[in-house]
Fold ABC-type antimicrobial peptide transport system permease subunit.
Amino acid sequence: MNILTKKNKWAAINIIGIAIAFAGVFFASSYIKHELSFDKFHAKADQIYRLNIDKPGKVGFMQSPDNVSTASLNAHYIKDLYDKFPGIEQIVLMVKPFNYTVKVEEEIFRLDNSYYTDHSFFTLFDFKLIKGNKEGLFHNPNEIAISKKSALKYFGSIDVIGKELTLKGEFDRNGGTIYTVKGVFDDYPSNSHMQPDMLLSSNLETLRNPYGHAFTYLLLHPDVKPDQLELSLNKHWKENVAEEEVSPTFKLMNLRDIHLKSHKKDELGSNGTIKTIWVIMSGALIILLITMINYFNLTTVQLNSDLNNLKIKVINGANLLDLSLSQIKKSSIQISLAIIIGSILSFIFNRFIEFKFIIKNEGVLFTLLVMCFIVVFGAISLLPLYTRKISSNLSNQKEEGSKKFIISLVCQFTLSIVALVLTIVLNQQISKIKNFHPGKDKESIITITEFPYAAISTFDLFKEKALKHPEILMISSTMMPPGTTPDFVYPFEMEGIDRSENNTISINSVDQEFFKLFDIQALAGDLNLKSGSSFIWESAAISPNKEAAIKNINNLDPSYRNFKEQYILNESASKKLGFTNPQDAIGKQFKYNFISQTYFKQGEIVAVIKDLHYADMFSEEKAEVIGLKRIFNSTFLVKIDKNNTSKALKNLQETWSQMYPDHPMKYEFLSDSYFKIYRNQYNEMKALTLFSILSILLSILGMYALSSYSIQHKTKEIGIRKANGASSLEIMLQLITEYVVWVAMAFVIASPIAFYAADDWLKSFAYRIDLSWWIFAFAGIIAILIAIITVSWQTYNAARKDPVYALKYE
């Protein structure tokens, strides 16, 4: 324990470094192990595949191609799977109920995260049932299995077999359907890509309803190769579509790959990315390498400082094995203490970055890493003994300065600068994300989604009542929730543009307050819009039968039907239509040829706006025309006084409950909506920022130790120079310059490495920052300033000493 009681600064630096490295490696290893383990606990995981559309098709009743980005499959494609592909042993379908509520006694809840399925679900997937009989589940209608969490939420106990709850859809007129609890499953493992709270029994005919979408899982025969089945599926559809139809292209994805490789808009959970794994692994590796370099350097410094004592031991009969055992004893104390500190730090890291995995359950991994650290750092502690011959001749082998450590010091700062550049890039891209989407103050905007159709029909009344509260500033509505794009893509007619069936455009729907709420300005035209079509008119016009729709419209009061359609183009649409100057589009006549031919009247372009960027930054903005409609507006937007958030939410919920008592309000702040989309990127930024700070800290500690050792060995040189007339400032500048040159060398090496890594990370964004020269220059300046600050105090103390003292130094 001598090394600790003397509070040796080299030992303290080693302990701090190894502790940080252990915490970083343990945290990163736990995260990576968790991410790579998704869905591997299912016994048949290697044979289970989810079927998705890779390229869209247009088959049967479809009016337009499938949305290629969805994780669920149009049920129109499912029926042939049962009859024509013998290589498929089992099919499990999961269908999400839309706008359902669950009533337990007199209390009503939203039915979120729940799916219809049949008994095959429990034979394919290995989820633990803690109450009920797995083999007997879902052979009868109106049965339900709920999670342990849901059982405690609704009933306060898991002993709920036989209890009843009522499920009601918004169009149910009979009070809903009573379901009986037949099973309670344990809460899903954190490494499952699906985490449903409720599973509802359904028959196969209902699940295969051609008007729905289902998450479709296939169990393949062990002898069937997935690529061959893909070819068979695609060949089947190419041969079995009508002349005017488009065959889809299917893609099979293994169950174990879904979490990291599938990023569709309606995934069953929040998926991770391979890129995040690489970022976390790279950050931890940088810290580990810097620590190993530091440890080797400082162990060498310790050996050099104690060289005479070691030579005396050799004179007294000690051999290399004796010296090695002594060194191992010292290093074991340092490593053990560092691991204890690092274990505590790892939990702090996990709390800071907020990854969703349980680090405390990684006992085996922890033990393995402890053993690895002891072996690796123990071996490193012996390297100086074996790379330097220690003889009994005390006059042999003069002590060396720090020039031998130049390469390792340059390596340390190279790694630190790379980490620093990447941290700046990630932070800059995240800043771009924050300012990219509409809404200057996203913390004051609330989105309300998944509400009953009645809410759309009474939107004006809800808006009127809610705005009576001064804390609620503005209310608007739109077609899609934040982070998504409209699904409607149809042909159009426009003055000055040749009509073509292949000339299509996306349409979005908003109300007239939308642009005011987001403070969006027009590039051309006027966004002070008049009220659009009424809900009554739209209800009459929405019929796909043109004659029936016209008859319905003619029966309306003129005050409901005499309006002028107004259209707004985004900048991408303006360019697509050939307008180099947005002003040229204003006043042009436009007609959208929707499936309901009377629903969108011919109107005029009244404004052009910049691209909304309402969806995400991973895909380019679509050409989009925006109309003032109501029936499609399934998202309400509410702007509140952010200084009175609690009262605003309370009044908003009370107003909602008064108008729609059977449908609890589902809301989310706009900032949270976008955070979910970029959760992986935010966590990458947090992790890399932490690792960057730690890598710089470790480099500072290493430079401090080496500069201290170097200056100590230059004491005589300093004394001679001062005796010859050199000033303290000249001596300081010379010593500092030496380290600045080394850091500059590191910057030259680090810049191309950092550029390649940063450019690769940014490739996943359609809209990204430029890798400007100032990012690299800023990182280099920081590194040089750190070097100057680190060595300045020591050089100042050495330079101002009396030369008489320096010349006496041994």
In short: The chain has three domains: 2-35+274-432+679-808, 45-261, 453-661.
